User: What shape does this take?
Amino acid sequence: MTVDKMFSVKGKKILICGNDSVYLHSIAKGLDQAMALVYVCGPHYISGLNGFEFFELQCGNEEEMLSSLNLIKNRIGDIDCFIWADMQKPQPGWDHEFNVIDKELKKHMLGLVLSVKHIGSMMTDKKKGSIVILADYASLVGFDVNNYEDNEELFDKDFSLEYGYIQGGYIAYAKQAAGYLGQFNVRCNVLACAPLKGTYPSEFEERFMQHSHIKRMAVKEDVLSAVIYLCSDASEYVTGIVMPVDGGYTAK
Amino acid sequence: MSILQKFSLENKVVLITGGRQLYGKSSSIALAQAKATLYIATHSIEKALPFIDELNQMGGTAYAIEFDQENPQSIKRMFENVISKEGRIDVFINASRVKPGSFGWEQKISDLEYSIRCNGAAFLYMNRLVGEQMIKQKSGSMILFSSMMGLVGVESHNYDGAEEMKKGAYSHDYAVVKSGVNGWTRHAASYYGRYGIRVNAICPGGLETPDMNPSFVKNYSLHTQLNRMADNEDIKGIVVFLASDASKYVTGTIIPVDGGYVGI
Assistant: This one.
């Protein structure tokens, strides 16, 4: 197989689940340009992706999810790749009451687990498939409080009580799923992404870059390239990993 | 001060959840031996009393305190009670785990939800509440019980010849909940560091129990670098170390105590 063919996602049916985030938009558009057949799903319609078929997928309810997945399967057939791109942050702040914590954990963690369980099981029939979970670099390290100096609002947003737990939870869950699905040649990996350029204030970006090996912020293509690698046959022996796409931020 | 004095927990108020079972029980014994003032949070004070007596006979100062992990009001009361008696909590050890009713890849969603509520939301709520007290003190150590299953996936061959145990493998809740503990440890260590509060996680390996299938014990042991499963003594050192001033510059760590299981 030539290297070009190895990385090709042409004709692969890729289902992306998530919410209205820059990551999801750029990944959907980038995969489309690479000639994959891209479908989008999530609990709510995602604006700005005209031309992509959208399926409603309620992630907090197993019966509704199974019914939605059957619809998707009837409509598009077997799914080659599934991308979990829930990059929405939980409620800002630390002093959350029990019910808020419970709600936030269920919103983000149940959705992931049910999606991986059922879409992974759908892939097992075909004995091939790739699941890619998009996570924050916070799944690997704690945020640096010094990056947030004089920006209380941003601090509260990132230092949401539940955020580290949710993001951290993605890591071993992917390994667990990789362990089970591996016998069916279905892979499951995590991408731990740095913030994209322009999504944080410039003061934050400067501090972030000072701590990175590569002195720039991530751009859409950085994440897209890693997604293509994990969706393509170039990574067919890669499963259960966490790949940081962060300019080396978490490497020191 | 001699180096070994740094490991003493004398005059430290320690609260532990899950302190009567398995690793939690070994931890409680070690904490009592290290002279901590120890509060063991328990569902049933009556059931806990013989163990409390045992700890006190060892020279410890131990008390039982009521707590229900499924009830946020009870959680809040537990902290209020310890603080009203002692005025502070120096060390909080979050070692309790509620087992859901079903396991494995086909685990029921209701059990997954239950586990996320009790082992996820209650876990965070407890840490958040003790964190409030530790912020006032400008000191404290949180020790969070994770698992080596929060670091790696299941080795299916561990169950060769022990198929009855395999039904418990690949449970959705366990991996996501324990991995969450690891992620939160780093997140919270960043948050609490400015207040002098340390947050660390312990990832124990499998504890050998008398009723365990010998095939599983053998397979599992082969997967470790020390060629054995954990015993009741193995957890004691790390718990006392993380609770004591000997670890005062240690925070945000995820420490496997697993005989090298995740190292190979």
The domain at 3-263 of chain B is CATH 3.40.50.720 (Rossmann fold). Chain B touches chain A through 47 residues (CB under 8 Å). Chain B has one domain: 3-263.
